[in-house]
Amino acid sequence: MDVPSSTWLLTGGAGYIGSHVLRALRAAGHDAVVLDDLSTGLRERLPDDVELLHHDLLDPGLGAVLADLTRRRDVAGVVHLAAKKSVPESVAEPLTYYEHNVGGTVAMLRAATAAGIGRFLYSSSAAVYGETAAEPVGEDHPTLPTSPYGETKLAGEWAVRRHAEAEGLGWTALRYFNVAGTASAALADRGATNLLPLVERAARSGEPVRVFGDDWPTPDGTCLRDYVHVEDLAEAHVAAAAALLEGRSPGALNVGRNAGTSVLEVIAAVSAVRGHEVPYEIVGRRPGDPARVVADASRIADALGWRATRGIEEMCASRP
Ligand code: WQD
């Protein structure tokens, strides 16, 4: 195997998205060291030859851990995915989300800079936009998050940008739209709170999945979202890492398909893949849901040459 062109410190690398980013970085010839507290990440998602730093971002010893790592390895940059990501949980426990998502990002920025690491790839979210007035949503859309989760992802972006400007770091923030699918059963999203895992569970159990409203201003009355395959998302991280290695700082970039898919269309796609109708029931709207959230993904295409290549069918087919 060729010598890895660079080694990245991947926080949250034992998670659903992190383990896919790890897989894509290594497929592209890079190497990675994973830092994860395993609170939701799974050690079995990691290949045996990947170094795992089992550590909490909020632990005071983080600086010493990174200082030791950079004495042993030439670390090109940090890919910072470690965060809590449940919108309802963030409403119930806002300080926990500010502590982990904002405090953890600040701790990583400080420790990385102290250890001489000069590039920072930050995992952000479409939740920074809140209620979207435009379709598609461009990066210059107002960022008015409507949940503590979205606020913490936006505050993390601000910290990364300001610190990068102050210290001369290379940086980018990838704003994930709705991530779905998996490269394998082992890497699948276990936290079945998002739509696709819930539809899959209904397909297996026969218990109807709830559809939060069919009276929205959309073609079939159900909410539209921009679903992006987790493998496409992981490849966007590889493209972003390449830009950082070239000395560029692409800033905040939407990661989506510029295509809206409705809840009923997701259910129909899973039904087609499974060969039987997935049961569902229409219930009331979920508070805080916007009708349509679709990415304008032109800036990432221009900046990184990245476009999603997998459609909703692949996302549905790739679930176990
Ligand atoms: C998708 C659509 C629901 C469940 C959240 C975060 C966002 C990002 C992705 C991290 C919506 C509908 C859902 C159900 C349903 N996470 N739905 N029945 O809310 O678009 O985005 O996850 O970055 O930041 O906000 O994702 O999967 O919860 O919902 O009808 O049982 O499916 O109304 O339209 P969401 P979701």
Give a description of the structure.
The protein has about 325 residues and is of the alpha/beta class. The protein has a domain at about 5-180 and about 230-255: NAD(P)-binding Rossmann-like Domain (Rossmann fold), CATH 3.40.50. It has helices at about 15-25, 60-70, 85-90, 95-115, 150-165, 195-205, 230-245, 265-275, 300-305, 310-315, and strands at about 5-10, 30-35, 50-55, 75-80, 120-125, 170-175, 180, 210, 225, 225-230, 250-255, 260, 280-285, 290-295. It is globular. It starts with 6 loop residues before the first strand and ends with a helix. The mean pLDDT is about 95. The structure holds UDP-4-deoxy-4-formamido-beta-L-arabinopyranose.
Essential attributes:
binds UDP-4-deoxy-4-formamido-beta-L-arabinopyranose, globular, Rossmann fold, 14 strands, 38% helix, 320 residues, alpha/beta, seven-stranded parallel sheet
CATH topology of the domain at 7-181 and 228-256: Rossmann fold
Largest sheet: 7 strands, parallel
What's the SSE pattern? EHEEHEHHEHEEHEEEHEEHEEHH
Q: What's the CATH superfamily of the domain at 7-181 and 228-256, by name?
A: NAD(P)-binding Rossmann-like Domain
**Total count of strands:** 14
Write down the overall geometry.
Answer: globular
- Hetero groups bound? UDP-4-deoxy-4-formamido-beta-L-arabinopyranose
Tell me what the CATH architecture of the domain at 7-181 and 228-256 is: 3-Layer(aba) Sandwich
Count of DSSP helices?
10
> What distance lies between the first and last C-alpha atoms, to the nearest angstrom?
30 Å
Output mean pLDDT.
95
Strand ordering within the main sheet:
3-2-1-4-5-6-11
The top-level CATH class of the domain at 7-181 and 228-256 is Alpha Beta
Catalogue the unreliable spans: none
Q: What's the helical proportion of residues?
A: 25-40%
Helix- and strand-based class?
alpha/beta
